[in-house]
């Protein structure tokens, strides 16, 4: 594995001929290089998280009442291990990560892993709900808009896209609460447990990604549909739907997939906000709590969790990128 | 993405669309009317920000507990003294919405400019030179993207003290990646094209190639990204303020007003709705302007 992780020398890969029999090897090498990058990203994130949270305030001061004496502060500091040298704390922390040992939460008095395990299902549920909404709405909307560009359908979709991209998730959430909870009494304004509780948060989180995916898919499809091979397919008598399905969507998916990978960061941010608006008991809400409680170990772990999610998604995006577009394989 | 022109000569990219010129112009006119409306609204926002003390009917921080949670003037129980009503501390909502433009505009433009400069430089270098600079820059980008900006913001605010400039700095420094990635991918597809190879062959320097041949070809996506980023930064600042992590409490921001207002949704919708509408309209207007910019800059999109 270790020699697979070695990167090719700079410049070596730029002029490599595209020999088909070497393609498999090349993909393998690229995958290995990407894995190495992913590990490096995680290590950097872990390090940045460790030092940043230590800049953001003294947890001992937050955990104790304001009139606590210096002695009491010292005792607590010692019992939390915060009086050890920074390097010891850092190495201890790094060594714990591969074993999924993130220490004990200062606020909950139990292992961080247990606190996280408690909250992850809620966030996964929210993300899954949002993903379903995104796919169900954005794929047809983007495709239809591209096929009927310039007409009323297209303009309607694009207006929706514009609105969706311009509206912050917490404002959408508040509007939905105002209409469906306060006004119509149809759905709960906050809480967790039933399908009805999921609807408003999932829609809130999905709005932005619906807009991004629909917009990109449309513009990408329009580009693809004006290409020569599409004209040829049309000339051969394929109907518009068949042309889009067989020739259009695969070629149009490349920029969409890339941007979806890039958008995972905003989606995670959106999840934090959405969970805050609806008091959704997930990792996002936990992160905000942990930050304001100065719960160092918990903040470090949630940051790592966010980073790991992002890294894994983008790893998949990169790999699918080279599968979708052979030109990328030879150009890099 | 969408902006690679089929003709490599940069000058040709600005040639007018000859066929169906009239319908295209008509459509652009219609679109431009929307853009004009957006620009007019933005002008209003800018005027509000610049002359807030002259325009606002009251001090945005003046509390009057006797007049708390008054509805807007047109509703039963409202009064002309507070056109948009008052919040939970009896502060005039219209004045607060007007003062809120200041933080939003400053953060939006400041962060986008900072991010644009960093991102364009990084993307050009990364895409043009490839190799080691590319790897290093893109790896920094990976780490940057994987790190939630909200947390970085809190750490910076906690360390340096809360304030407007730190929010701009954080959003600017965290926002460069999308510029860099788009510029890089455009440059990657441009650099093997004949006009670049030829320029290099006749001995044109790297800096000149980047400035004269690559930069003009990435301006269209840059303008769009830049404008969209202004909107994104406005929304990001509002989000931070909504979470209570943004600018200090005594500064009036739409995000903090929304957080206050959400507590009173059941009885007093106006406290949350007016700052929310202001935020949405501003962000919408900036996005419409961005689209219009792209249509002008990119003839391929213009013809659509």
From TrEMBL, chain B:
Q: Where in the cell is it found?
A: Cell membrane
List residues traversing the bilayer.
34-56, 103-124, 136-157, 163-183, 218-243, 263-286
Sorted keywords for this record are: Cell membrane, Membrane, Transmembrane, Transmembrane helix, Transport
Residues folding into a coiled coil are: none
Instruction: Enumerate the Gene Ontology biological process terms.
Output: transmembrane transport
How does the entry describe its membrane topology? Multi-pass membrane protein
Q: Which GO terms describe its cellular component?
A: plasma membrane
Report the residue ranges that make up the ABC transmembrane type-1 domain in this protein: 101-290
- Record flagged with keyword Transcription regulation: no
Similarity remark? Belongs to the binding-protein-dependent transport system permease family.
Q: What is this protein called?
A: ABC transporter permease
